[in-house]
Design brief:
single chain; mainly alpha; about 0% strand; Multidrug-efflux Transporter Regulator, Chain: A, Domain 2; about 130 residues; elongated
């Protein structure tokens, strides 16, 4: 998307997969900087806004708390001098995500074992 292109909130939610309520909420709590407004006060989303919303979505999907997301957004607004703090926050979150992935992998192994057990039972005629 070219920076001169703008999207309405309806178009932005279609692109991001978020709801309009979530986008407004993110703006209200400071995760999303106030979006430019056009005539009539309608939000006008640019490519950078959509990219940021996409990143916020990934943080939330991976389990980052709203509080940590707000901290990250605030650090981002303060500029490059906060890069070390942002890096530390993201590395800590990445470690938590890796831990969760390992936990889920163990659960998947258990599920696969149980599925194999039932398939073998079915194949042998035992119920």
């Amino acid at each position: 998307m070219d920076d001169v292109d703008v999207l309405t909130i309806a178009e932005a939610v279609e692109v991001t997969g978020l709801t309009a309520h979530t986008v407004r909420y993110y703006e209200r709590i400071g995760l999303l900087d106030p979006v430019d407004r056009g005539p009539g006060g309608r939000r006008r989303f640019r490519g950078a806004d959509l990219a940021w919303l996409g990143f916020l979505t990934r943080l939330r999907t991976t389990g980052m708390s709203i509080r940590d997301m707000q901290r990250f957004a605030e650090l981002r607004r303060r500029g490059d001098q906060t890069t070390p703090e942002r890096l530390e926050l993201l590395e800590r979150h990445r470690d938590a995500v890796r831990g969760r992935i390992a936990e889920l992998a163990d659960c998947l192994t258990s599920l696969d074992a149980k599925i194999d057990h039932y398939r073998r039972s079915n194949a042998s005629g035992a119920h």
